[in-house]
Design a protein that fits this description.
CATH architecture of the largest domain: Sandwich
Shape: elongated
CATH superfamily of the largest domain: Carboxypeptidase-like, regulatory domain
Strand content: 35-45%
Largest sheet: 5 strands, antiparallel
Structural class: alpha+beta
Number of strands: 9
CATH class of the largest domain: Mainly Beta
Radius of gyration: 24 Å
Order of helices and strands: HEEEEEEEEE
Number of helices: 1
Oligomer: single chain
Length: 124
């Protein structure tokens, strides 16, 4: 009986200490994430004559990890990438039916949170 009482007291103390520590540190679920959203890159993929290209594939390459994200453009040729690290350079280009656009760079020195890059493809 005495042993189970001590175990119960120890558990209560542990739970109370954990709750106090969480209150002091703040929990990630309720933390203000407005400053940690990262950068956004949006734009449109178009022909040289300004016609939107739906179903083009836009590739975004992280130059640090070499990982590549892709986005298939919408009916208006629009694309978007959200939550990008502000401390990393990215390379971005589009491909439409075998035709590739020139590669553009999103620099870590560009301090804008929302970057618009329109991409042109010579569809011949």
């Amino acid at each position: 009986m005495k042993r189970s009482f001590l175990v119960m007291v120890a558990l209560v103390m542990l739970v109370t200490a954990g709750a106090t520590q969480l209150a002091l540190l703040g929990t990630p679920a309720f933390a203000d994430k407005s400053q940690d959203q990262g950068r956004n890159v949006t734009g449109q993929v178009m022909t040289k004559s300004e016609t939107p290209l739906p179903d083009a594939v836009v590739y975004l390459k992280n130059t640090k990890t070499l990982t590549i994200k892709s986005f298939i453009t919408e009916k208006d040729g629009g694309y978007r990438f959200h939550g990008l690290s502000p401390n990393i350079d990215y390379e971005i280009y589009a491909d439409y039916q075998g035709q590739k656009s020139p590669t553009k760079t999103v620099s870590s020195f560009d301090n804008r949170n929302n970057i618009t890059l329109n991409i042109r493809i010579d569809t011949k």
